[in-house]
Amino acid sequence: MKRLNKKYFTFVFAALMSVLMSGVLSFFIVFYEDGFSSGFLMKFLGAWQFSFPFSFVVAQFVTPLVRKFTLIVVESD
Questions:
Q1: What is the dihedral angle through the alpha carbons of 30, 59, 20, 72, rounded to the nearest 10 degrees?
Q2: Rounded to a whole number, what is the distance in angstroms from the first to the last CA of the chain?
Q3: How far apart are CA 55 and CA 57, in angstroms?
Q4: At residue 14, what are phi and psi to the nearest 5 degrees?
Q5: Which of 30, 45, 47, 51 could cysteine-pair with 22, CB 3.0–4.6 Å?
């Protein structure tokens, strides 16, 4: 399998992180609000569809900042 160039790291990292985080948070928020009621799957998918674009944009901007801050805070070899 061909791998992407490392210049795409931030984009791919933000995409994967936002898919996972928005999915997990949408699941638990819908579960907290309604439990496993009828229509749970559609409510969850609707919440995920709404939250993913926002989390992706935020992750695009926050990832480089968090990386810089982490390098300041964490001891390097």
A1: -120
A2: 32
A3: 6
A4: -65, -40
A5: 51
Axis crossing angle, helix 40-73 with helix 9-34, rounded to the nearest 10: 130
What is the four-CA torsion angle of 16, 8, 53, 1, rounded to 10 degrees?
A: -50
Spatial separation of the C-alpha atoms in residues 61 and 39, rounded to whole Å: 34
5-41 pLDDT per residue, tens:
999 988 898 999 999 999 999 999 999 999 998 999 9
Q: Looking at residues 38-56, what average pLDDT do you find?
A: 95
Query: What distance in Å separates the CA atoms of residue 35 and residue 18, rounded to the nearest whole number?
Result: 23
Q: What Rg do the C-alpha atoms of the chain give, in angstroms?
A: 16
Tokens representing residue 71 in the block = 């390098």
- What the block records as the tokens of 53 is 């674009």
C-alpha span between 11 and 9 (Å, rounded): 6
